[in-house]
Each structure stands twice: as structure tokens, then as C-alpha cells.
Amino acid sequence: MYIRKQRLLTPGPTPLYPPALQAMMGSDIHHRTEDFRQLYRRVLADLKEILGTSHDVLVLVSSGTGAMEAAVSNFFSRGDKVIVCSAGKFGERWVELARAFGLEATVLEANYGDVVSPARVAEALAREPETRGVFVQASETSTGAAHDVRAMGEAVSQTDAIFVVDAITGLGTMPLDIDGWGLDVVIGGSQKAFMIPPGLAFLTVSPKAWARAESASLPHYYFDLKKEKKNAEKGESSWTPSTSLLLALSEALRYIRSVGMDRLIENAQALARATRAAVTALGLELFAPHSPAASVTAVKAPPGVDSGIIVKEFRNRFGAIIANGQGSMRGKIFRIAHLGYFDFADLFAVIAELEIILAALGRPVSFGSGVAAAQTVYAELALAPVP
Fold first, then answer.
1. What is the mean pLDDT of each run of 10 residues along the chain (387 residues)?
2. pTM of the model as a whole
3. Where do the domains of the chain lie, and which CATH numbers do they carry?
4. 3, 118, 200, 315: which one has the fewest Cβ atoms less than 10 Å from its Cβ?
């Protein structure tokens, strides 16, 4: 009751991998030396291997939004027709970026908690054959819903448009066959499944996207991806890099390689499945029940309860940091993350805490019912006979 350890249970930033944090102490290397070039080449090679792509991978010193902006400014020209899938706060960010750079955006909207169907994307492409790009979130973190990027990629690949996927919380939580599904630009961020602090973004860029860059005319300077590609081939970044974060990322990638990207994804999906079972057992309602993401579970607050109260109770009682809803969902939902350096012990604790919080708010709770539901999922997965 009197000692509280802070625990991050948000969809970014996420808990830090301890050896990655320790690796940051070795950041007193100059970025124009062979020591740094070896580090940079290793990070880029490991990212390609872990992401399972033959496409170029570039690293930027920015949050994920910087990579989103780079994906607009490097591959499009003012007045280009694009399709933007918007089903939450981050889909709205794609809309804002497209309009900020003068693109002619057809916005396919879905209600918060829902997703844009691949059929709608295919229909929009058929109506406008001059479409130059399609933008979507793999995992819409603001609502806990996941898009079917595989089916979308199949539709986009049959056209001249490039497919740009914000996978900042999708990477490490859902399968993404970048090359096989026609994902031309895929964006990731350091503070999500990669278990290190915010400050690095990265992109994969397909040959189709690079060909588009040759004719793109939107202005860019710091986020010049052709310049980054040229420098990366020499083992260097275009600008002063975040050496400490690259050291951390190198260590985190080593860990992910040892675990296996497929198992990292399975871990997130198992935690998400157990969380959905637990909150349902507690009589709570999922916000995105039909297309749930594995990166985060969004839960409706009980009737008459502001979700912000639940968020504060987690922090004040237990030092646990979960996320409120965003935008119009603020006060209506709370979100528990599953990506990166999370395990089932974390989940058992957070569900037990939720039970106590609900009881403190006057909700009828049978202590242990939510935890038991999560334990059942764990037992089914971990105690199953080995074939």
C-alpha cells in the first residue's frame, strides 16, 4: 500500500528492455567514425531481418509522426489524388498531413471502434484510377482496432498507387508480410514493440515507392529519404543521429532476434486475448469487438463512470500508467497495452488492480473472476501438451 513501483501499461512509450537501457551509456562515440558505421549498418541489417523485408530500411531521428510526414513529402506532389482511411485519431493525422501538403484526399471514414473495409478501398480505387497513394493505420491505437492491410494491399498492388502503412503499433503485434502483401512504405517507432525510449522512427521503402520519389515534387529538407538512402549505404546518417537510441535499438533488436518476431507477435496476441476475456468476465464492454488489435485493448468505462477516473485510480493506487481515450473518446474508454516488454505477470497484476478499482467505484465485483479468465487463457496456451 505504501510502496508503489511505476509500471507503464500504455501503447507508447512502453516498458524499457533493461539491457537496451544499459547500452545507452556507451553513447560517447562519434557519428562519423568506423565504430558508429558498424553500429548503424548492424541496426539497418537487423531491422531488415526482423521485419522480414528485402526493401530498403531507413532510420530517422523523430517520433513516428516524422516518418509519416516523410512518407507524404517524399513520394507525392501537390494536387495528387490519394485515399486516406480514417477510423480514429491517427487516421485523422493522415488526413491532416495529406491536406497540409496540398494532396487531394478522398477520406474513407469509419466510426471510432470500427475499421475501413478493404472493399471500400477497392471501390474507391476503381472510382478514381488516378489515385497516387493509399494511407492507413495497421493498428489504430486510439480505438484498439486493426485494419486488414493484407486485403487492402492486394487491391492497391493492382494499381499505380503506393500503399503507405502506419505500423507504428502494428509491428510486433500483428503479422505484416511487407513484400508479399504489397506494403510499399511501412512506418515504425522506437517506443512501441521495440522497447526503447521515444525518438527514432523508421520506414521500409519498396522499389515502387522509390520510382514514385523520382517524380515527386513536394518540398523536404531534413526528411530527405533519397539522401538518407545514399548515406545509409555508406553506414552513415544524413544528420546528427541519436547515438544512444541506436545503441539501445541494437540491443533490443538482438533480443527480438533471440525471441523471434513471430513469438513477439504471439505474445502480444495472447495478452490481448486474455485481456479481452478478463474484462468481459468483469462485465465490461470492449470498444472494438469485431476487429480487435493486439497492440492495445480499448474498454468502455462502466455507465456513469468517466474513464479518466479509472486512469487516475490506476496511477494513484498502484503506480500503473494506462491510457485514457483520445479525442471524442476521452472519458469514455480506457486502454491497456500489450506490445513490447510485457508478460503475463504484468497482465495478472493489472487485471487484479482493475478489479479493486471497480470495487472502489461501487461496481459489483467478484474478486478473482477477471484474473481467473486471464489465467485460463494462459493455461490453455502455456500448459497445452507439446505435440
1. 86 95 93 95 98 98 98 98 97 98 98 97 98 98 97 98 98 98 98 97 98 97 98 96 97 98 97 98 97 97 97 96 94 96 96 98 96 97 76
2. 0.96
3. 7-13+260-382 (3.90.1150.10), 18-259 (3.40.640.10)
4. 3
